[in-house]
Fold:
Amino acid sequence: MEVETREIRLKTKGQGDIKDITGLVESEIKGSGLQNGTVTVFVPGSTAAVTTMEYEPGLIKDIPLALEKIAPSGADYEHHKTWGDFNGSAHVRAALIGPSIVVPFTEGRLVLGTWQQIALLDFDTGPRDRRVVLQIMGVS
Ligand code: ZN
Structure:
């Protein structure tokens, strides 16, 4: 059993920007040389999230619309009194979805459904440079 920690860096537009990072995660698994195991995909930061979804144009709109109902961007948040950074909505959305997922891989390939991609969601108020940490555990 080996553990390898790798990192993906990417730019987001913030404001609910959703990036498909499946290919990037899979190429890091290939780079690790590990064949069977699990990868933890974790975004450091409290205004972004990682999940799986079908990455298609409809859901790229539907997911932010659903989150707008749960944590409206224009609402008043207690968080704004703490820092005055006016991204309370981003924090609530990120907390609901969560910062990480674990995905198994076999023979160097992610075990995902055909219509299931790994997505990074950035809810912050503007463009961000994000890093996504991959901790790959397995055997070669
Ligand atoms: Zn904040």
